[in-house]
Amino acid sequence: MTPLALWRRQILTIVSLEWKKTLFARRGLWVFALAFLPALLIYLSALNLRNHRDELQRILLNNPTAAATTANIQIGMPFDRVSSILTGANLNFTTITRANRRTIIRYSDGVSSWDLIFVNGKLTDRTDRSLPALNDRIRQFAAIFQYFFLRLAIFFGCVGIFINLFRGEMLDQSLHHYLLAPVRRDVLLIGKYLSGLFSTILLFGSSTALQFFFLLYAYPGPESASYMATNGWSHFFNYLGVTALACVGYGSVFLASGIVLRNPLIPATIILFWEASNWFLPELLKKFSIIYYLQALCPVVAPISPDVPDAFKMLVTAAASIPTPLAILGILIISTAVLALAALSIRKLEINYSSD
Amino acid sequence: MSSSLITFDDVSRFYGEVLGVNRVTLNIPPGITSLVGPNGSGKTTLMNLMTGLVRPTSGAISVCGISPYDPQNLFRILGYCTQFDSFPSGYTGFQFVLSSLLLHGLDRQTAEQKAWQAIAKVNLLDAAKRKIAAYSKGMRQRIRLAQSIAHDPQILILDEPLNGLDPLVRSETIALFREVAARGAHVIVSSHVLHEVDMISDQVILLANGYVVAEGAIRGVRDEISDRPHQIVIRCDKPSLLASRLFAHDFIVEARLHPDRLGLLIQTTNLSQFHKLINRLALDGITIESITPADDDVNSLYQYLISEEGTSK
Prior knowledge:
Number of strands of chain B: 13
Shape of chain B: elongated
Number of helices of chain B: 11
Radius of gyration of chain B: 23 Å
CATH topology of the largest domain in chain B: Rossmann fold
Order of helices and strands of chain B: EEEHEHEHHHEHEHEEHEHEEHEH
Mean pLDDT of chain A: 88
Number of strands of chain A: 4
CATH architecture of the largest domain in chain B: 3-Layer(aba) Sandwich
Helix content of chain B: 25-40%
Radius of gyration of chain A: 27 Å
Number of helices of chain A: 13
Low-confidence stretches of chain B: none
Largest sheet of chain A: 4 strands, antiparallel
Order of helices and strands of chain A: HHHHEEEEHHHHHHHHH
Largest sheet of chain B: 6 strands, mixed
Strand content of chain A: 5-15%
Strand order of the largest sheet of chain A: 1-2-3-4
Mean pLDDT of chain B: 87
Oligomer: heterodimer
CATH superfamily of the largest domain in chain B: P-loop containing nucleotide triphosphate hydrolases
Number of domains of chain B: 2
Shape of chain A: elongated
């Protein structure tokens, strides 16, 4: 057997031995929660939107002129007058009383949902609580994906999975089984890395797919179909690709950290700070950050709410745009360089469980 | 293999400021070699150095011409049964041995066949499909042994391999070591159980406080301890007469009548002179039934070399 064939077989053996152990390790169960939390939230939100839409349709069916009647409601009207218009239009509404003599009337007219805000008994504001359009939801999804999923969920998921590939086995005192096999240590490193990659891509990739599915679940019918016919599939595969590249990049960094450092909190904190402070780094240093490339690859620019504090806004500002092939190449180069350093380090790794 | 020796060339290993082993120079030939010494004497460190699990602070090691840092070649010919009593979680005994063989690059069918053969050798066939977590200590020891012999290694390193084994399994395991050594392999065993070491060893390496205090065949090591008189038991028909004849010579330090009055326990500082003398006395009408060394076993060596060192420090 040629060395290459042997290494390929050994790598496949390591992946087949490791991936289930990696994915279902007791100390890694919280990673599942982290991965699927956004999918759960988007699903709950989609359910809420669908219920809201059903409610509007029911009102429209029962009271088709309600929207026209309530269009007469004007700013400055007293509370009693507004409530009599709504009663006259045969609409159900709820009244919420707040501090500072503020009262809110909440109702739906079959076309939209409204909040009427009264101060000292006079209507001062009228807020449309209608369903967000799919385009708005796509931008919201981009924000969730970039600010939570990439920067926190995949980041910490990779901390949990990749650091434990070696450090976890040190703690379990079982790493020597691999080190006593006729396997080059760099081959072992690649095998372990690929098993971690397989597990994280499976986990976070399926979460990305679910999130995307639930995003569209709130918009059944032509709106979703039209989106999928234009940019939808491209966005979907783009998000899956970014998810996979995030696992490639963060996985390599945390695998190396697990070999070199004993306490996973130290590299996690340092790298989180490094990634978060990407915005103020000089152009050259930005290129040594994973998020710099990942954000450039995201298909939709994530909006930042004006309510977000300035300090936080700076931390989540997208990096400068980079051509897609260069961004992919950037992540692959960083990952390869980090893995090469890890391979040098693992050659000198000693088994001394008592000190771990 | 380009060489049949395992060599340590002036090897030292420190754990921070703690001494593991110091200035060890050894040439270990094939056969059964026992590493003997109290806890902390450096036995496991020597084994870990041979297998590349730890690196020397200074010096060089070669295992039959292969560097310990070349696992791909080293572990094709070497099996190491460590003292670490931990296993990959969720594995059965069979999966544990099989996974190790698959890492050798064997195809699944061959690996399964070899795994079953190794498990049969350690008499664990009935429990092979059970999770290791449910094994007793002795069973865990045996499955580790099965894993270390499964690929028919030329060098077998065993760290306290008889720990936790019942007497029957002990004797079977010792027979297995002998079988491996009989085909020209190295079997390197560390043990605290001195009479077992004595039974199985072709040579011993005695360690104390990280230093090699003696090495070689047990008899050879004993002969080199010149400051201790040799103890010999002589069975004969006239022990009192023999004692009086022996006392006439200054190389006889002590001659005590055996409690059963059918022999003498002799201490002599010159073994060759003693044997010549005995030959002459036998011709003078004393019937000598047997002459047996009483202190060329590992236990005595241990007492002479290690216990004294321990007490002197």
